[in-house]
Write a structure and sequence with these properties.
31% of the residues lie in helices and 16% in strands. The chain is α+β, with helices and mostly antiparallel strands. It folds into 2 domains: 115 residues, no CATH class; 199 residues, no CATH class. A 5-stranded mixed β-sheet has the order 4-9-10-11-12. Strands 1-3-2 form a 3-stranded antiparallel β-sheet. Strands 5-6 form a two-stranded antiparallel sheet. The longest helix is centred in the middle third of the chain and has 19 residues. It is globular.
Length: 332
């Protein structure tokens, strides 16, 4: 893994910045007027936007995950085509994707119900998180998946595959318990006196027979207080207390069958991250090995999605009372 440091300085996306939204509308002379014939790349791109994988992906990120070796501008135009109504009059068909255009940025895409049908993935669970929160959540996951794709032998397994195919543990096929899968919310984990519900579904990291199960991530955009006297108000200290019960009781084992686990807290403000880590001492004492803290950009406020110079896969995560933790080297 000696090449990890080289990945940190490498921009993820090789594409020229676009300065205004009209350049990615692709109407008028740029519009495709003939019948739309879906290609294998189209189907792969629609499937990548399965809401149980990714709710939102900006065009450059979608390109990097689906067809990184192909021309980006052509891919961006194709996404715009898949997000338009096709035909006219009674022959009109609904789009496969929905475009969420943000000024000064490349378009962000999600999948429509028509796209669900074409991908043969009907009725997927759809997130109810606000756009900015869900976008940050998806980009954290995308940065892990993309970073891992650059390391030979590294594999990222997302929730649908964990749920459907399980994993190998001690030479035996292991699955998430049926009682968890059949629950109204499979990711709501009971702890004494309440429950813990991470923002993200679990992710499995695999490298040369070693496995690490990420329980999920917690996105912090400063919308919740660190502490509060109101019992009904969600806050960071309350989350710490829930995770302390979960990890010390190894409740992830009972809930998911996972042999190990960590959770990622991703903050958009560095000072707030440091304050949250100081707060951990009140709950965990002098050390907390289970929560890995990151400071990252708030991508909904950035002017461009083009380059990520410090993405979560190789960034040094902070653990209270412990040395830095790097997902790309999770076994160390």
């Amino acid at each position: 893994m000696g090449n990890v440091a080289a990945h940190r300085a490498t921009p993820i996306f090789n594409a020229m910045a676009r300065t205004h939204r009209s350049q990615f509308e692709y109407n008028g002379e740029n519009a495709h007027t003939g019948p739309l014939r879906l290609t294998p790349d189209d189907i792969a791109g629609i499937r990548k936007l399965n809401p149980e994988l990714y709710t939102y992906l900006p065009a450059p990120v979608h390109h990097a995950l689906v067809v990184p070796k192909k021309n980006y501008i052509r891919h961006a135009k194709r996404l715009a085509t898949l997000a338009r109504w096709q035909g006219s009059g009674t022959d009109k068909t609904s789009p496969y994707l929905q475009r969420h255009q943000v000024p000064y940025k490349h378009a962000v895409y999600s999948r429509t119900q028509h796209g669900d049908m074409v991908a043969d993935e009907p009725h997927p669970h759809r997130s109810k998180q606000p756009f900015a929160h869900q976008l940050q959540q998806d980009l954290v996951k995308a940065s892990i998946e993309f970073g891992a794709s650059k390391v030979p032998g590294f594999e990222v397994v997302l929730w649908p595959q964990i749920r459907d195919a399980g994993w190998i543990e001690d030479s035996r096929q292991t699955f998430v318990p049926d009682v968890t899968l059949n629950a109204p919310d499979p990711h709501r984990i009971k702890v004494p006196g309440g429950h813990v519900r991470p923002d993200e579904a679990p992710i499995l990291l695999k490298y040369r027979g070693l496995e690490l199960f990420l329980l999920g991530n917690e996105i912090d955009r400063g919308t919740e207080p660190l502490t509060t006297t109101h019992a009904s108000r969600r806050n960071i200290k309350q989350k710490h207390e829930g995770y302390k019960q979960l990890f010390e009781g190894k409740l992830y084992r009972a809930h998911y069958n996972f042999p190990n686990s960590l959770v990622l807290f991703v903050f958009t403000n560095k000072t707030r991250m440091e304050s949250a880590m100081e707060l951990q001492e009140q709950t965990f004492g002098k050390k907390c090995p289970y929560i890995v803290n990151y400071h990252w950009k708030d991508w909904v406020s950035e002017r461009s999605f083009i380059t990520w110079d410090d993405y979560v896969f190789t960034a040094p995560g902070k653990r209270f009372g412990y040395s830095d933790f790097v997902l790309a080297e999770f076994w160390k």
